[in-house]
User: Fold this.
Amino acid sequence: MKTEEYIALGTLITVIASALALVIKQVEQSRCTKIKCCGLQCDRKAPQQNIEENNQENNQENNNNNP
Assistant:
């Protein structure tokens, strides 16, 4: 293989790995309990701490919007 082919292959691998990492990050931060993606299916419990924090933030935002 030529050097250019190695660079192109390395770039392709990096792009695919980055895209996969972004999908995994979004799934981890999601509050969804049923996730279906790319033929895979997952039923999970959302972290309770994140739900409580988001509820508190939403309540604060709602209080700020109401005069």
Q: What stands out?
A: The longest helix spans residues 3-29.
